[in-house]
Specification:
This protein is of the alpha/beta class and about 130 residues long. Helices cover about 35% and strands about 20% of the residues.
């Protein structure tokens, strides 16, 4: 006598739940990645007429109006700035950094950071905001 099972497992499953989870993860990572490039150092960047977006540099040097320097949001003494920038860019394929100077920063403080780039042949990007 042949015994048949009444409940057969259904091998099909819906992908709707999985696509919802993937979509939510995509939205989460897009929102957090755009906020990750923001710097915590509050400087008023100078305005410019034309701004072209480019690839962000691996290192950011921020300069406040009072002459304090920050490397990737960490305060740095002026006499240690060159050593820290050189150490962080050693071994990098893209030897460049971005200078984020406040619009009221003294010219001598900005030039000091530029001289480091010139001395070690680093590429420099100057952060600005688009004029409205």
């Amino acid at each position: 006598m042949k015994i048949q099972r009444r409940n057969k497992a259904n091998p099909e499953f819906s992908l709707a739940a999985m696509t919802d989870v993937i979509l939510l993860m995509l939205i989460f990572f897009m929102v957090t990645s755009s906020a990750a490039n923001q710097s915590a150092i509050d400087v008023k960047l100078p305005k410019t007429g034309a701004v072209e977006d480019n690839i962000p540099n691996p290192l950011t040097v921020s300069i406040k109006p009072d002459g304090t320097y920050y490397v990737d949001d960490n305060p740095v003494a002026k006499d240690q700035l060159e050593q820290i920038v050189v150490n962080k860019l050693t071994g990098q394929t893209n030897k460049s950094f971005t200078i984020r100077a406040d619009e009221n920063t003294l010219h001598k403080d900005f030039v000091f950071a530029m001289e480091i780039a010139e001395k070690h042949k680093f590429n420099v990007a100057i952060a600005t905001v688009k004029d409205k």
